[in-house]
Design goal:
The chain is α/β, with parallel strands linked by helices and 281 residues long. It has helices spanning 17-33, 51-63, 79-91, 102-108, 148-151, 175-182, 196-206, 219-231, 262-267, 272-278, and strands at residues 4-7, 36-41, 73-74, 95-98, 119-120, 123-124, 143-146, 158-162, 169-173, 186-188, 211-215, 238-242. It folds into 2 domains: 1-77 and 245-281, HUPs (Rossmann fold); 84-207 and 216-235, Rossmann fold (3-Layer(aba) Sandwich), CATH 3.40.50.620. The protein is built from 10 helices and 12 strands. The chain is globular and about 60 Å long. Bound molecules: glutamic acid (GLU). Glutamic acid is lined by residues 8-10, 42, 200, 214, 218.
Length: 281
């Protein structure tokens, strides 16, 4: 299959130097492989996504010298694909509705067993309070979770290849690690068509992505994605997790960190070459 990678920002704020770095790395990997670079708009959280941020993404990336095929995939238009994936997992008996709120989860987890990890890629590992509920019990405000204790044993010899320098090599994803370090992740969030994990896996497969390029902040999520790919019968791409751009204090840049926004540098007269230099490219 032809090499294909992507930059997948969420239009919830201005792109900053860290996004520029990620997009430039993905485009360079594609160019080097003689492959394709795609842009995908991850607007699954409609309560936080704004059309003006999306417009700014297109503008900033074009200004940086990047181009990509259109039309661009938008997660807000992909509900049917997410529902099909969810139906498959539900038919396999692997999903359940959960009505716990954050405070319930904190309370249930407040008596930690010694030696058991408390936090996974999505924060506190779900203690399993609602695990015995079935899809038929679902209430309108419930989230949908993956029953990892049932799902993980179905996965045999799972592994993925990382090409980035930080974690370079082949990594096994074991059933034990999925149960212990990940747990029952959310597949559908309240008020959303899907969770980040499910949508990114379904979309990468739909776009024939052969390399997922993204920041090292998503490294922990990769085992979740590889597990979902296997459960859904999808190909496992290779991964390139790059280092993160940090501010002078060593803190990684956040969306609200407007001072580092590409648009702010542009307004101050910086050139695309200046941005490349600032991120060390
Ligand atoms: N949409 C995610 C973000 O903006 C990135 C998703 C990914 O690269 O897998 O952080």
């Amino acid at each position: 299959m032809q090499f294909c990678t992507r930059f997948a920002p969420s239009p919830t704020g201005p792109l900053h130097l860290g996004h520029a770095y990620s997009a430039l790395i993905a485009a360079a990997d594609a160019a080097q492989a003689g492959g394709r670079f795609l842009l995908r708009i991850e607007d699954i959280d409609q309560s936080r996504s704004r059309p003006e941020w999306e417009a700014q993404i297109f503008e900033d990336l074009a200004w940086l010298g990047l181009d990509w095929p259109t039309p661009v995939m938008r997660q807000s238009e992909r509900t049917a694909a997410y529902q099909a994936a969810l139906a498959r997992l539900t038919d396999m008996g692997l999903t359940y509705p959960c009505r716990c709120r954050r405070a319930d989860i904190e309370a249930a987890a407040s008596a930690p067993q010694e030696g058991v990890p408390q936090f996974g890629p999505d924060g506190r590992i779900y203690p399993g309070t609602c695990r015995a509920r079935t899809p038929a019990d679902a209430g309108p405000d419930d989230v949908l979770r993956l029953n990892m204790e049932k799902a993980a044993p179905l996965l045999k010899d799972l592994q993925f290849t990382e090409v980035g320098a930080l974690y370079s090599g082949t990594h096994a994803v074991t059933a034990e690690a999925l149960i212990r370090d990940v747990g029952d992740i959310i597949l559908v969030r309240r008020g959303m068509a899907s969770s980040y994990h499910l949508s990114v896996v379904v979309d990468d497969a739909a776009q024939n992505i052969t390399q997922v390029t993204r920041g090292a902040d998503l490294w922990e999520a990769t085992q979740v994605h590889v597990a979902l790919q296997a459960l859904l019968g999808l190909a496992v791409p290779q991964y390139h997790h790059h280092d993160l751009i940090r501010d002078a204090a060593g803190k990684r840049l956040a969306k609200r960190d407007d001072a580092r926004a590409i648009a702010t540098y542009r307004a101050a007269g910086a050139s695309p070459a200046d941005i490349r230099k600032m991120v060390g490219l």
